């Protein structure tokens, strides 16, 4: 429980959310134009199209698995391709530890100490809806949908992230949970999708599967269920 409370404090759970009026008052950048393509990012068998530290990442039972038996630094498995406007859907599950999962985007692959698989950019946190800024190392203010409870810690969770212009919306298990708008337009740039294995002082395992991206989506709303 102590580790869980520390994780929540560090990862911006105390950041005051936007009200509905505040989020609506933030400027919107128009979605970019481009070819709409649906692409399966994981074939269920190999890590083709992905790159990262394979001491920590593998494939198990049709899922991408991030796993370590001891202390591990925060690191990511990245797509080789980069994306700006997209709809990303996947399923995620924390198998072991009270840590969280996450999806990075609009950033770049960075090095931190001996770890070559860090990031500089925003992160959607799963399952406790929140976001983190890996550029300034701080929690981001988001609008959270009122009355929506976070999914269970160790269950499969369906995740949808819709990034258009400077606007990012997220749904978990078909329910919209939060919205964020990047106030600095220059930070919205093509970057790889990164699956997170977050730093933790003991053993942990996280799974990701059914990973599909749609570039420059025509639909401007979350699909939900």
Largest pleated sheet: 9 strands, antiparallel
Mean pLDDT value: 92
What is the assigned CATH homologous superfamily? Exo-inulinase, domain 1
Residue share in helices?
A: under 10%
- Strand count: 18
CATH class: Mainly Beta
Characterize the overall form.
globular
CATH topology: Jelly Rolls
In quaternary terms, these chains amount to: single chain
Element order: H for helix, E for strand: HHEEEEEEEEEEEEEEEEEE
Count of helical stretches: 2
Q: Which secondary-structure class do the elements indicate?
A: mainly beta
At CATH level 2, the architecture is Sandwich
Q: Tell me the span between the first and last alpha carbons.
A: 32 Å
How large, in whole angstroms, is the Cα Rg?
16 Å
């Amino acid at each position: 429980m102590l580790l869980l409370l520390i994780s929540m404090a560090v990862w911006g759970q105390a950041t005051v959310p936007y009200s509905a009026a505040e989020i609506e008052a933030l400027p919107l950048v128009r979605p970019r134009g481009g070819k709409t393509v649906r692409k399966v990012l994981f074939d269920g068998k190999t890590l083709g199209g992905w790159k990262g530290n394979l001491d920590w990442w593998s494939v198990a039972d049709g899922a991408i698995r991030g796993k370590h038996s001891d202390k591990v630094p925060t690191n990511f498995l990245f797509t080789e391709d980069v994306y700006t406007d997209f709809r990303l859907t996947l399923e995620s599950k924390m198998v072991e530890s009270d840590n969280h999962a996450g999806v990075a985007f609009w950033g770049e692959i960075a090095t931190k100490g001996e770890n070559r698989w860090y990031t500089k950019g925003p992160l959607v946190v799963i399952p406790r809806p929140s976001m983190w800024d890996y550029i300034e190392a701080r929690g981001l203010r988001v609008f959270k949908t009122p009355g929506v409870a976070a999914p269970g810690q160790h269950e499969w969770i369906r995740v949808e992230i819709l990034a258009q212009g400077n606007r990012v919306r997220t749904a978990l298990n078909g329910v919209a949970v939060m919205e964020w708008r990047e106030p600095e337009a220059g930070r919205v740039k093509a970057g790889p999708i990164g699956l997170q294995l977050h730093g933790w002082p003991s053993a942990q395992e996280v799974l990701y599967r059914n990973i599909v991206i749609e570039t420059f989506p025509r639909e401007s709303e979350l699909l939900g269920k």
